[in-house]
Amino acid sequence: MSIYTLDNGLGLTPQMGWNTWNKFACGIDEKLIKNSIDAIISSGLKDAGYNYINLDDCWQESRDENGYIVENPVTFPSGIKYLVDYAHEKGLKFGLYSSAGNETCQKKPGSLNYEEKDAEMYAKWGIDYLKYDNCGNNDTSSLIRYPKMRDALNKTNHYIFYSLCQWGEEEVATWGKDVGNSWRTTGDISDNWNSMISIIDQNDQWYQYAGPGGWNDPDMLEVGNGGMTYTEYRTHFGLWALVKSPLLIGCDITNMSEETKEILTNPEVIAINQDPLGKQGHKIKRTELELPEGIEVTITSSQLVLAECTGKANQKWYINNDGSIRNNNMNFCIDIPNCATDDIQVETYGCHIGGSGCKNSKNQEWDYENNHIKSRMDFNAPQKCLTVTNGIVSKVMTHECEESPEQIWVYDEADHTLKSNSTGKCLASSVEATEVWAGNLTNSSYAVLLLNRASRQGKVEITWEELGLTKQRAKVRDLWKREDLGVFEGKYSAYLESHASMLLKVMPTDDEPIDNIDEKAKGDEVDQEMANIVLIACGSLILIGIIIIVIIFIQNKKEKEKNEENNKLIDNSTKEGE
């Protein structure tokens, strides 16, 4: 086994399981973990593929006289080994948390300079998974700290899934596969739409680096924690499945709603995530929605993009003396997510100029000089500027300042627009837009997610040409509903409500398109209608005939009665004459 790469044969598909942090944080104990082990089985989650039970921060308490890590004796009186064995007896795997620093994020003992002792203890306990955080790192490079734990794990000859949680710093996606089985590409997720959608945007730029054995990790799932709607949670889970993210449940699995269970256990959506080809899906199309006349958008936290200049509210920017660039004169500013020092997609976020967090809020301070928008943040390197990257979807990133058209912005003080010199388009918040995300699957099929990011209903369309299909016909299957939609020629589209999505499987075919089938169906309907008309007409004729017969019968009867009456009168007259 090499000590220069992670050679554990794990993570051929993204990991699936449950983690304590999003719901319980430090409020964990032995009883909760045992109950969760039981619940992951009784709820059907284990059968759906979730097999890791992972303790996050706060399980550890101290180190013994020999430097080995010790669990909290109050919250885990039977010890970690007891819980590991309990999970293994149930056919599950067990994971722990530590940090590549002197202490963890919750001030518990970290593993920096104790890598071999901790790895030895993990192997002794039978641990199957390590989440390795980035707190307490003394500003030492991740490229030094994270390989040390990799080598310590390799040395034990006990295979442990190695999950790097260093918040996407130092372009970890470009080297993570040599060190770990997955790597965080972003800061922490929160249980709301803006956080979730911003994080998946940040993760997207690294899609080419994921594959069997190593995965981009945009953080754990929030499905079921209550901060989003059912529709938004379906979109959240669908996106995580499509981009081959780890599927680590973050809610209380001992008390799930049926809606939560339905989302988390959909077998066809999970199959997209676990597809053995291992190609991460990514954003391939974005379309701005036209606003009805007189309606302006309420801007929320969102990715920055380029759009045709329209003068709409999401394209208006105000450059202020405090360094902020505010959108639409509202309290949302151009923001470098999580104070990232590497190149990253920029977003709008709630303004916090003068705050104490995130490098004293310098991540929201900019200087507009010589048509460059320069960050005031300290990067320990050359200054960075807002930069346009061109591709299928243009992105607005931070990048080292240089003299290039991609960094030239023209500010119009009259209409408050910032126009990109390289594209002629305007800087915009991406709130009112639809998108298409897609990725290759085995058997030459495709996973496609249609997404409406807007605050109102919108049409989302994908053409087979945009998807890269060589055939003009494709079968389309709705994975959430688990039903075939038919064969479509050239494209597929749908109208989606705000924040809704459709997750589709698209399979090229030579079968007849659904439009022709519809025409035949319409023809059959016409034939049936004609037959019905003929039947009705025949019935009407028969009814008319019956009515005529009845009328003739009545008339004949009346005529007969009249004749009989006349004959009686004649007979009576004859008798009187005699």
Structure description:
- The chain has 578 residues and is of the alpha/beta class.
- 29% of the residues lie in helices and 25% in strands.
- It has 13 helices and 30 strands.
- An 8-stranded parallel sheet has the order 9-8-7-6-5-2-1-10.
- A hairpin with a 5-residue loop joins strand 19 and strand 20 (395-400).
- Helix 5 packs across helix 6 (142-156), helix 8 runs parallel beside helix 9 (258-264) and helix 8 (230-242) runs parallel beside helix 10 (267-273).
- The longest helix is centred in the C-terminal third of the chain and has 64 residues, at 514-577.
- It is globular.
- The chain starts with 15 loop residues before the first strand and ends with a helix.
- The model is unreliable at 293-300 and 516-526 (pLDDT under 50).
Largest sheet: 8 strands, parallel
Sheet with the most strands: spatial strand order: 9-8-7-6-5-2-1-10
Overall 3D shape = globular
Uncertain runs: 293-300, 516-526
Strand fraction band?
25-35%
- Total beta-strand segments: 30
Number of helices: 13
Report the helical percentage. 25-40%
**Terminal residue distance:** 144 Å
Structural class: alpha/beta
Mean pLDDT metric: 88
Rg for CA atoms: 34 Å
Give the helix/strand layout.
Layout: E1 16-19, H1 21-24, H2 30-42, H3 45-48, E2 52-54, E3 60-63, E4 69-71, H4 80-89, E5 93-99, H5 115-125, E6 129-133, H6 142-156, E7 161-164, E8 182-184, H7 193-204, E9 215-217, H8 230-242, E10 247-249, H9 258-264, H10 267-273, E11 282-288, E12 302-307, E13 317-319, E14 325-327, E15 332-335, E16 347-350, H11 357-360, E17 366-369, E18 372-375, E19 384-389, E20 395-400, E21 409-412, E22 417-420, E23 426-429, E24 433-440, E25 446-452, E26 458-463, H12 464-467, E27 473-478, E28 483-489, E29 491-496, E30 501-508, H13 514-577
Parallel strand pairs: 1-2, 1-10, 2-5, 5-6, 6-7, 7-8, 8-9
Antiparallel strand pairs: 3-4, 11-24, 12-16, 12-23, 13-14, 15-16, 17-18, 19-20, 21-22, 24-25, 25-30, 26-29, 27-28, 27-30
